[in-house]
Write a structure and sequence with these properties.
Elements lengths: L1 E3 H8 L3 H9 L7 E2 L5 E4 L2 H13 L4 H9 L2 H31 L8 E6 L3 E11 L9 H9 L9 E8 L3 E10 L12 E5 L2 E10 L5 H12 L8 E4 L6 E9 L1
Antiparallel strand pairs: 1-3, 2-3, 4-9, 5-7, 5-8, 6-7, 6-10, 9-11, 10-11
């Protein structure tokens, strides 16, 4: 028994326009064509149509749904688990966004921004030890960059800094540069590669290393917005001569 597109629409609750769209995308094609060329569907396609539309309403992409429909049972389970994790992450991002909006004070200039890293970022880190003081690692920027440029191609002029340990007289940390993640880069005693997944960051812009209130400003920001840092803070300089940096606080990773 075959159903016309109008009959199939009534049985599934999906408008004909949506059924035509799914057909065009190769997601739900009619089981046959009638003599007049009109689309015709089988009874067996009703449940499939409802499931496809439900996945679309759950914000699953058409390409992903196509893969799911063609997959075996084991692969379907893996895809479902991955989708659940991705949805959990999107919910975390929305929760952080809600906190951010709730912390905005319209009477003051906004100094905190949200930045989303859409793609994985690969950073090569080099470890240094310096005397305590303003910009303790800046003297190593040029050395670190020159070393890497002989090995890999840098993706930008940005320099990243992580502070690991502070003693009475010394400060230990890492200086990093973003590189092409597809390159075959082997770690050694001089450098390590970190693949940072897509995530959401709170950003304190235009910070100065000689700002005596920087730590206080950071604490106040965390309290004001109710953020819970998800990892180590990073400083990001636009180039090796920059006097200011952006403070990156990971919220979702």
């Amino acid at each position: 028994m075959h159903l016309t597109i109008q009959e199939f629409s009534k049985r599934t609750g999906l408008p004909p326009s949506k059924l035509r769209f799914y057909d065009k995308k190769g997601l739900l094609q009619p089981s046959t064509r009638l003599e007049n060329g009109y689309r015709a569907y089988s009874i067996d396609q009703i449940d499939l149509a409802k499931m496809i539309d439900s996945l679309r309403n759950a914000d699953i992409s058409i390409k992903e749904i196509q893969l799911y429909c063609d997959a075996d049972e084991q692969k379907k389970r893996k895809m479902l688990e991955r989708w659940k994790k991705e949805i959990d992450k999107r919910m975390e991002v929305l929760h952080a966004a809600k906190k951010y909006v709730g912390g905005i004070n319209v009477e003051n200039n906004q100094t905190i921004l949200l930045s989303k890293w859409e793609k994985e970022k690969c950073i090569v880190w080099q470890r240094f030890e310096s005397e305590r003081g303003p910009h303790p690692f800046r003297e190593h920027f040029l050395t670190a960059r020159n070393y890497l440029e002989n090995i890999v191609t840098l993706c930008s002029e940005d320099i990243y800094v992580k502070t690991e340990q502070i003693t009475k007289n010394k400060i230990i940390g890492e200086v990093g540069f973003a590189v092409d993640g597809s390159m075959d880069l082997k770690e050694n005693e001089c450098m390590r590669l970190e693949r940072i997944p897509p995530g959401l960051y709170a950003v304190m812009q235009d910070c100065r290393a000689d700002d005596a209130f920087l730590c206080f400003s950071y604490i106040q920001m965390v309290i004001r917005f109710g953020f819970q840092p998800a990892g180590n803070k990073m400083e990001r300089y636009s180039n090796i001569d920059s006097e200011i940096f952006d403070y990156l606080i990971p919220l979702i990773q």
